[in-house]
Structures are given as C-alpha cells and as structure tokens.
Amino acid sequence: MAALCLIAPFVAMLWVGSYAKIEPTFIGIPFFYWYQMLWVPVSALLTTVAYILVRREKRALSAAERAGAADNGGAA
After folding, report:
1. Cβ-count burial of 67 within 10 angstroms (0-12 exposed, 13-18 middle, 19+ buried)?
2. Which runs of consecutive H residues, i.e. helices, occur in 1-76?
3. What parts of the sequence cross the membrane (predicted)?
4. Structural domain of residue 50, as residue ranges?
C-alpha cells in the first residue's frame, strides 16, 4: 500500500495526455498548470501516509520479534 502511495504521483505526472489541455480554467489558470500544482500537496499527503504505513509495519515486526525472543527464553 505504501508503494502505491509513492507511485501514484509519478503516474499522474507522466501521463501528460490526461492533463495537456487548457480547459477547465481555475481562477484564470489553465488546467495544465493548476493540475500539476494540485499534485504538490497531494504528493506530500501521500508521502506522509506511506511513511506512517511503513513505520507502523516496522513497529509490528519489532514487537513480533521481541515476543518471539521472549517465547524462546531470550535465545536469538
């Protein structure tokens, strides 16, 4: 899931045909420009989500390793 969060902005920006147009404009700014600028905060949000997911997974693995070590009497 974290990889999807990181790949989505790249796919969106590399698929130029989807946003290479002028209409619809937003406060006078052509679609081509405001679509790209919209991806700046969206990418930051998706990167944050990916970071949280990876951190959560690492914590779960650490807890599982500690629990496994405790079950084995501390032998690694």
Report:
1. exposed
2. 2-14, 31-71
3. 36-54
4. 2-16+24-65
